[in-house]
Amino acid sequence: MKWFPCLFLCIFSFSVSQAQVNSLDHYLEIAKNNSPLLKDLHNQVALNQQDSLRLMAGFKPQVNLTSAGLYAPTINGYGYASPITNEHTLNGLVGVNQAIVSKNNIKSQVEAINLQSQSINNSAKISEQDLKKAITGQYITAYGDQQQVNFNQEIVTLLTNEEDVLKKLARANVYRQSDYLTFLVTLKQQQLQLAQARLLYKNDYATLNYLTGIADTSVVELAEPNLERGLPPDISSSVFFRQYKLDSLKLVNSKQQIDFSYKPKANAFADAGYNSDFMGQAWKNFGTSIGFSLSMPIYDGGQRKMQYKKLSLQEETRQTYKAFFNTQYKQQIAQLNQQISENEKLMPQILDQIKYSEGLIKVDTQLLQTGDVKIADLILAINNYLAVRNLKTQTIINKLQLINQLNYWNR
Length: 411
Known about the structure:
Elements: H1 3-10, E1 21-22, H2 24-34, H3 36-58, E2 62-71, H4 82-85, E3 88-100, H5 103-161, H6 163-171, H7 177-212, E4 221-222, H8 239-261, E5 265-276, E6 286-295, H9 303-369, H10 375-407
Parallel strand pairs: 1-4
Antiparallel strand pairs: 2-3, 3-5, 5-6
């Protein structure tokens, strides 16, 4: 009956048959590279950069080549009125148009695009945090399943190795046949639990690959996730609050653009080329022209005030959302820290229970050698030990999940 003391030495050694070991960072990196959302957001920033360049190009002189010809014949007095159509015209002109826009106006329009890019960049950082949280959470779940598989495999291996020994002792009437059957039922139960644990691990591992974007059905060993409890940054530098700041800047920029839209607009233009109606000396109709245009809004029915009111309402909404999110943010951080602390306080109690369970089984194994304990009592003690070991594993996994949720806000 030497296998019972060996149980305590083997129970802590977790091993898997797979040679390859993948870490959490491995899956996070692959998920980040495979994410179409992150690629989309990064491409949107690149598109905004092109829009900014195109905007600046639009304020440079615009040069166009235009040409038009017209022939309206009059036959036997029938046709369009000649003073209107000039009967036949031809022009070919090179025109230059330059909008006269203040530097502050240009700066405001460029700033609007830059703010949009910053907002997209911030959304990309939040999306990356969402992805990291999802992958890490699933990795922890699969890792916990793996630990359960390894633990159950150890138990099944040890019980299987001693089955023949107990069978011989039962035949020698050292133990009753019912004692052996009780042991056999326990072995079969552990084998069933092992099969269920393997199935659960395969399913959760497949989900991990699915979330990461890996097309692979093979199962490999997962390294222990090295998660440390971090401290959330100051609210002023958090990406979750930066969006509210960017929204405020966007509203200020929108007000500036409204003001610029009510300022005078000037435009200068010039052209040169050929423009003739062929009524005189057509070969002399080469020339040039210059000019300008000016427009100034005077009255639009009070639309400017309406736009200001609209921006004011948007700012009020922004402040309301920010205040509500600030409350939720602080409550979430405090709640997670509290849960982690309570989880840590539970661990010493579990370790004490494991120690007591080990001591009980040691005593039972000594009595078993003299026939002074029932196998059913020993099996009950072993089951209690397995239960508390499973509780320890679950407590560790719960702590890792809580740290993952807390670290989500650490950016």
